[in-house]
């Protein structure tokens, strides 16, 4: 087994060629501490207990060994990853797909509640090498016989402590009982409460234990913000940001080398002086691009992580994450390209709705919130354009003073004035109009239709899922419902006799049906049933999804609570 202390690059890990090719394309160079300590053990087949915070790079820590050991000819699942939420399941599946980009014929399938079961059943009839799922939906497929684990080599329990808090740990144990006896198990958890220790003792064989502490990585002098945008409107968002930000030079980060050249061409077409910076460039090309950036002949560099390593250009005032990195450490390295040597800087992050969890991971890692960016109004944008126009005119007046070009242009303007009786001031206005065509100085009504308004932060949802029953009554008081929100009471066919806690119900509804926890009101547990408050007038599709939700293997069988009238509009001050 490789000595982790001597691992300085992914090449030292001797991963398969397709995996290494993908890492190079993504821009990964050096493994994080948990990756260097974990990957050799998992590659050799050892069970593993990883104690690490979110944001330390643990997805790659288990995904890369799975792909290295993969038998592409074996078409039934060889690895099962259990995740507490649909968001994490999707994120992990996307990471697998990225790392397996050059493994021809590879298939990964995320399975979770809230998605049509028929879609998943059809997908499971086709070759699938890796399954990433939430416990409840994985159990559903095992009961139906639609998920074949007979050839399973590896089981990964990701964020085990979170699965415990959401009431899934018994489900996890049930799933482990239905896996082959000789499979490899890797368990990752930020903390080690007693129930997780029991799972480790019962299901892991002589595991290697890896502990990685999270470093404090907040960069105080860098202003950070984010913007949530439609996935197909990132370029519109980027150009709006670059127009309104008063930047000297900027570096825009993307995930792939191909994206650097494509984005550079698109930005050039929109009037920005841009160039790609990627690993395919030889040293002379790279140095030439950096020199242009330093001398002000280039304003925007579009780069991968690898290409930007060691880049220190004083002019770089802004770092824009066009593609959010999967690894929080990579984010810290990226934004460190600005704010160097005590200088101020700004880092802007573009995310899509499906990437909210990655944002939350970065915030946990840096131990600081990344606020939403406020886009300027049309009036502010007009002021900015007018200022830039004036600055440009003044600079040109100074540059052409005393040159032959100035004499020619003066003669031309005076000729127009004498021949057509046009005042020089009107000729200057006409020339300004020509120069500004395509970018009017006065901006009309702005369309921000590429912006997505967040429905609620994941830290709020997570905190709600962690709430436990408050005393013998088994009630869960909502912390805050939106002002004026009307609620409807629903009956659930689960209660205290089933070992249910309010947190279990919150976790199941939020995770499986996609209802944000801020919209889940009071929960009252009785012996044989429960009452929960949900938004009045829910769409039929959401209610249909709720019909299929289970808690601790028991169906909710949700239906309106008929014995009481629906609650009226409530104000925060009256709750609790």
UniProtKB/TrEMBL annotation:
Kindly give the Gene3D superfamilies that the UniProt entry links to this protein: 3.30.70.330, P-loop containing nucleotide triphosphate hydrolases
Residue span of region Disordered: 453-486
> Pfam families, alphabetically?
DbpA, DEAD, DeaD_dimer, Helicase_C
Q: CDD domains per the record?
A: DEADc (cd00268), RRM_EcCsdA_like (cd12499), SF2_C_DEAD (cd18787)
Q: Where does the record place the DEAD-box RNA helicase Q domain?
A: 8-36
Q: Does the UniProt entry include the keyword ATP-binding?
A: yes
> Boundaries of each Helicase ATP-binding domain copy?
39-210
User: Taking every annotated instance into account, which residue ranges of this chain make up the domain Helicase C-terminal?
Assistant: 234-381
GO biological processes: cellular response to cold; ribosomal large subunit assembly; RNA catabolic process
Question: Catalytic activity, per the record?
Answer: ATP + H2O = ADP + phosphate + H(+)
| Record-listed E.C. numbers | 3.6.4.13
- Which InterPro entries does the record cross-reference, listed alphabetically? CsdA_RRM, DbpA/CsdA_RNA-bd_dom, DEAD/DEAH_box_helicase_dom, DEAD/DEAH_RhlB, DEAD_box_RNA_helicases, DeaD_dimer, DEAD_helicase_DeaD, Helicase_ATP-bd
Q: Where in the cell is it found?
A: Cytoplasm
What PROSITE patterns does UniProt report for this protein, alphabetically? DEAD_ATP_HELICASE (PS00039), HELICASE_ATP_BIND_1 (PS51192), HELICASE_CTER (PS51194), Q_MOTIF (PS51195)
**Motif Q motif, which positions?**
8-36
Single GO MF annotation: ATP binding
A single GO cellular-component term on record: ribosome
Give the first-level EC class, as a single word. hydrolase
Basic and acidic residues biased stretches: 456-480
Q: Hydrolase among the record's keywords?
A: yes
Family statement: Belongs to the DEAD box helicase family. DeaD/CsdA subfamily.
* Biological role: DEAD-box RNA helicase involved in various cellular processes at low temperature, including ribosome biogenesis, mRNA degradation and translation initiation.
Name of the featured protein: ATP-dependent RNA helicase DeaD
Q: Which organism is it from?
A: Gynuella sunshinyii YC6258
Which gene is this protein's source? deaD
